[in-house]
Amino acid sequence: MIERLDSRVELPADFFDKQNGPIPVRWVDLRQFPRFYFRTPAALEIQSTLPALSRSPGAVRVYVKDISRAAVAVLHSEQLFPGERLWLTVLDGVRRSTTVSRCRRIQANCYEIAALFDAGDSAD
Amino acid sequence: MGSVTTSAAVDQFMPLAVQTLVGAGEADFDLYVHSKGGHPLLFRSRSVPLADDDLQRLIRSGVRTVLIRYDDRMAYEQHLHDRLTDCDDLSLSGKYALLRETARLVFESALRGDSVAGMVGVAEQFGTQMADVLCDRTQTLRGIFDLMLHDYCTFTHSANVATYCITLAQTLGISDRAHLAQIVTGALLHDIGKRKISKRVLNKPKSLSPADREAIQRHPQIGFEELSRDRKLTWSQLMMVYQHHERLDGCGYPVGIVDDEIDPWAKICAVADVFDALTCDRPYRKAMTVQEACIFLEQRIGHSFDQEIVRCLTTMMQPA
After folding, report:
1. ipTM of this model?
2. In 3-state terms, what secondary structure has residue B37?
3. Of A123, B135, B184, B242, which has fewest CB within 10 angstroms of its CB?
């Protein structure tokens, strides 16, 4: 089902190169939990956006980059903004509620979106 | 002139622009100037009427700020309020100084209250008033530059950036008064996220460590997060807060977006922000001259800043 969704994200060339295990920690990291490489497609749907912004409804295909107990990073073709709430569905078919905490441009049509799992929706 | 206060009392005083006192007459507060030793020196007691000639003499001798006791703040605010409601006789410089001073005091109160809605309300109110004063183009930007304070305290910086933004926006073709007021409001709020950054980091006199830099670079996002739920602000105003450190080549922060992805109002705010930062004294360096700051911006056209906006600013800053 996820594979059939529309996606315009342009992934970095090395995105699917074999990488697994924990992501090395930088000394300035303030993260609570270790992150793990996890490269897989996912369905993203906007749950709610910000008062001054409008978004079209519907799910699109994005790609999970890494995941921890508290948060997930996905690559998406659009810039999302801190505070927007998302539904994310990964391989297991379970829909998880998340809130965008940060966005960084990787290249044209590719933004890394970091989102925190909402209470009761962690990746445990 | 009268008594010198003790050095221990210096922090009980607040500075204010001399210009805002013109026409004060029988203002109900004591007025102090800085002595050569840096201590407040009584200039005029509240029992003595404040003559405009005395104030003009101070201004001519290069004194731009005087001091009052914090205890007298309410009386000063009342004076500002009275003058602002009846200021038809004032020059642009007088109106501008009054408005900036009033905005500073109210803004500082709102900051202490830590109410984002309160700050947005104040910024909106002064956005409209500043647009009314500054849309009356009887003075060049270079002329207004001389009226500005350049001490780089957060409010002074925000007020200066707002002044550059509205003047640039007008010259670039934005004529709708409501939009111009929104631009001033957005500019007044653009650094609101810095409230959450440690003063130790913001005022560090030496170069920043990577951790300090990372902390400071969070302020656009912090400000955006605080304001983005406020239904009174438009998207472009929010982008002035979120994107004013983005650069055309993608080397900015917090997202690293490029040229067309940056909101036009944020591009204006970026140029205004850097120009004011360069022309103010900072904890770690002296202010650049206007000419040096213009050269700095010109050298970054195309990769950091929009050509049209920079050219517009540098042209307006040329001496008459």
Report:
1. 0.91
2. coil
3. B135
